From TrEMBL:
<dbReference type="GO" id="GO:0044209">
    <property type="term" value="P:AMP salvage"/>
</dbReference>
<dbReference type="GO" id="GO:0005737">
    <property type="term" value="C:cytoplasm"/>
</dbReference>
<comment type="pathway">
    <text>Purine metabolism; AMP biosynthesis via salvage pathway; AMP from adenine: step 1/1.</text>
</comment>
<dbReference type="GO" id="GO:0006168">
    <property type="term" value="P:adenine salvage"/>
</dbReference>
<keyword id="KW-0963">Cytoplasm</keyword>
<dbReference type="GO" id="GO:0003999">
    <property type="term" value="F:adenine phosphoribosyltransferase activity"/>
</dbReference>
<keyword id="KW-0808">Transferase</keyword>
<feature type="domain" description="Phosphoribosyltransferase">
    <location>
        <begin position="33"/>
        <end position="158"/>
    </location>
</feature>
<dbReference type="InterPro" id="IPR050054">
    <property type="entry name" value="UPRTase/APRTase"/>
</dbReference>
<keyword id="KW-0660">Purine salvage</keyword>
<dbReference type="GO" id="GO:0002055">
    <property type="term" value="F:adenine binding"/>
</dbReference>
<dbReference type="InterPro" id="IPR029057">
    <property type="entry name" value="PRTase-like"/>
</dbReference>
<dbReference type="InterPro" id="IPR000836">
    <property type="entry name" value="PRTase_dom"/>
</dbReference>
<dbReference type="GO" id="GO:0016208">
    <property type="term" value="F:AMP binding"/>
</dbReference>
<comment type="similarity">
    <text>Belongs to the purine/pyrimidine phosphoribosyltransferase family.</text>
</comment>
<dbReference type="Pfam" id="PF00156">
    <property type="entry name" value="Pribosyltran"/>
</dbReference>
<dbReference type="InterPro" id="IPR005764">
    <property type="entry name" value="Ade_phspho_trans"/>
</dbReference>
Length: 184
């Protein structure tokens, strides 16, 4: 029997919830990846091994609210670098910069503390999933407003049919994703 690739192993532990949060949506639930300690280690190690090498190692990891916090903080810890949260509007207590982006219905705003990164910092931007790419694009813009260089956007899941990963790549952001749900 052929051993599973990391991607296939992780895919087996992502739960698909039909018709949530709306009819016709196939929601990709990553919580089973986090619940099993062996699966969680494989997931984190896939990111850590990529980013510990010379040229790929960031100065800081930025995680997008909220599941990007789970991944980003653990990856930052393992890499021995700092972690900064990019939060939904109104959640950070200090001076912030803001970026508003469009959602399917309306818009949302994310914020970052003005002292979260320094000009020239190499930042890994991480989230659980790329759908339309709006949240990650907003995070990238926030980090760049403060003079940081976003070296790569990383996520567990890519939903390429929603166009987000292509939009992010077209903006010049390199992407690393572990599981692609194209056509599924």
């Amino acid at each position: 029997m052929q051993p599973l690739s990391v991607s296939e192993y992780l895919r087996q532990h992502i739960r698909t919830v039909p018709d949530w949060p709306a009819p016709g949506v196939q929601f990709r639930d990553i919580t089973p990846l986090l619940q099993d300690p062996q699966v969680f280690r494989v997931l984190i190690d896939a990111f850590v091994h990529r980013y510990m090498g010379r040229g790929m190692r960031p100065d800081v990891v930025a995680g997008l609210d909220a599941r990007g916090f789970i991944l980003g903080s653990v990856v930052a810890y393992e890499l021995g670098v700092g972690f900064v949260p990019i939060r939904k509007k109104g959640k950070l207590p200090f001076t912030t910069v803001q970026e508003t982006y469009e959602l399917e219905y309306g818009s949302a705003t994310v914020e970052l503390h003005t002292d979260a990164v320094r000009p020239g910092d190499r930042v890994l931007l991480i989230d659980d999933l790329i759908a339309t790419g709006g949240t990650m694009m907003a995070g990238k813009k926030l980090l760049e407003k403060l003079g940081a260089q976003v070296t790569e956007g990383a996520s567990i899941v890519d939903l390429p049919e929603l166009g987000g990963s292509q939009r992010l790549k077209d903006s010049g952001l390199a992407l690393f994703t572990l599981v692609d749900f194209a056509g599924h």
